[in-house]
């Protein structure tokens, strides 16, 4: 999920680690919940404060997707450029919360405002302050990733509602170099990693800003996202999954997956986003339309599951990098109230 959608720690890490920490053969060492969150916080901060560029590859479920990523932090502002290298060409340019997604072949550009929920990597956003209740963090040692020395962290779930993770963070900057999402038995469901990366590159914000300014000849689509409340829309979640908190709820338009967006049409879709600090679950609610919606579906792509089903006059879609039981719990806990 890191691709879709799409800080210094050396001294602190050494202070927490036992002698011989840099050796990959060193035994895994559990850290306290506060220290574990501090480690993950620094990984998250490195992605926003460092200047880097490289090739990022996501593999899982027999699928491979890659992109060129460049990120610059300049004068307090953040700039990001992502270009897909597989399938239909797509380019994403971000300046702070303003995001332009461009499909050159169809000459369509989508301009929207996004919060930090879509930033890389998706760590410690939303309910991150309580991560110690739901995950154990262990220091496993060191390995070499993309030509750089990396510290390895194991993040193990304490219950059945979430996946585990193994993280490789650059030893010098703590930029996240690789992330494995792990199943119940430790199997790798999805791997997201840099195949090559340069850290500390010269900021080049103009390579992001200029393409955002020159959209002549493109059909520009501006999706409208309005703040919303489940209760005000006649919905409630009677029993949330432990650890997941509602972090955002908006009314938006739903575009066909994998396609350039069309002009907004039809009824808006309600989207509620729940987070436990490391991962998200999105619940989409829209009016049921027989010509658009088929049979209930459970689809898997790497670590990402999608569950769809009809509920009265509504069509429910639940998406997340979580176990099947978690998606089913969210879908089953939704209740419709009379207007």
Show the helix and strand layout.
Elements: H1 10-16, E1 29-30, H2 33-49, E2 52-60, E3 63-74, E4 77-84, E5 91-95, E6 98-103, E7 108-113, E8 135-145, E9 148-157, E10 164-170, E11 176-182, E12 188-199, H3 206-213, E13 219-221, E14 226-227, E15 235-237, E16 245-252, E17 269-275, E18 280-287, E19 297-301, E20 304-311, E21 314-320, H4 324-333, E22 334-336
Parallel strand pairs: 7-13
Antiparallel strand pairs: 1-8, 2-3, 2-12, 3-4, 4-5, 5-6, 6-7, 8-9, 9-10, 10-11, 11-12, 14-16, 15-22, 16-17, 17-18, 18-21, 19-20, 20-21
Describe the structure.
- The protein has 339 residues and is mainly beta.
- It has helices at residues 10-16, 33-49, 206-213, 324-333, and strands at residues 29-30, 52-60, 63-74, 77-84, 91-95, 98-103, 108-113, 135-145, 148-157, 164-170, 176-182, 188-199, 219-221, 226-227, 235-237, 245-252, 269-275, 280-287, 297-301, 304-311, 314-320, 334-336.
- It is built from four helices and 22 strands.
- The protein is 12% helix and 44% strand.
Q: How many E strands? A: 22
Give the helix proportion (percent range): 10-25%
Global shape: globular
Number of separate helices: 4
Mean pLDDT: 83
Order of helices and strands: HEHEEEEEEEEEEEHEEEEEEEEEHE
Main β-sheet, spatial strand arrangement: 1-8-9-10-11-12-2-3-4-5-6-7-13
The stretches of 5 or more residues where confidence is low (pLDDT under 50) are: 1-26, 256-264
Into which percentage range does the β-strand content fall? 35-45%
User: Nearest-angstrom radius of gyration?
Assistant: 20 Å
Structural class: mainly beta
**Major β-sheet profile:** 13 strands, mixed
Multimer state? single chain
Distance between the amino and carboxyl termini: 35 Å
């Amino acid at each position: 999920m890191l691709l879709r959608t799409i800080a210094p720690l050396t001294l602190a890490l050494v202070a927490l680690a036992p002698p011989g920490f840099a050796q990959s053969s060193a035994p895994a060492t559990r850290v306290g919940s506060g220290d574990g969150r501090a480690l993950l916080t620094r990984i998250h901060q490195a992605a926003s404060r460092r200047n880097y560029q490289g090739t990022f590859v996501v593999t899982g479920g027999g699928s491979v997707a890659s992109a060129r990523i460049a990120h610059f932090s300049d004068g307090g502002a953040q700039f990001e450029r992502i270009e897909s290298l597989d399938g239909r060409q797509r380019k994403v340019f971000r300046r702070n919360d303003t995001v332009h997604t461009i499909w050159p072949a169809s000459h369509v550009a989508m301009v929207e405002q996004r919060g930090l929920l879509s930033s890389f990597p998706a760590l410690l956003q939303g309910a991150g302050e309580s991560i110690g209740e739901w995950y154990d963090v262990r220091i496993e040692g060191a390995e070499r990733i993309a030509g750089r020395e990396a510290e390895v962290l194991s993040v193990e779930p304490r219950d059945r509602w979430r996946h585990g993770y193994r993280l490789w963070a650059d030893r010098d900057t703590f930029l996240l170099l690789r992330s494995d999402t792990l199943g119940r038995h430790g199997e790798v469901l999805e791997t997201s990693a840099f195949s090559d990366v340069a850290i500390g590159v010269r900021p080049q914000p103009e390579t992001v800003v200029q393409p955002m300014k020159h959209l002549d000849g493109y059909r520009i689509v501006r999706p409208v996202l309005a703040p919303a409340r489940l209760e005000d829309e006649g919905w409630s979640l009677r029993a949330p999954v432990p650890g997941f908190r509602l972090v955002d709820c908006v009314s938006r338009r739903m575009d066909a997956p994998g396609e350039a967006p069309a002009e907004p049409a039809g009824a808006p879709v309600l989207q509620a986003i729940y987070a436990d600090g490391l991962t998200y679950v999105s619940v989409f609610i829209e009016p049921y339309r027989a010509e658009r919606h088929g049979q209930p579906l459970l689809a898997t792509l790497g670590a990402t599951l999608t569950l769809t089903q009809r509920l009265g006059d509504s069509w429910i879609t639940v998406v997340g990098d979580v176990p099947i039981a978690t998606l089913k719990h969210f879908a089953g806990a939704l209740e419709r109230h009379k207007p």
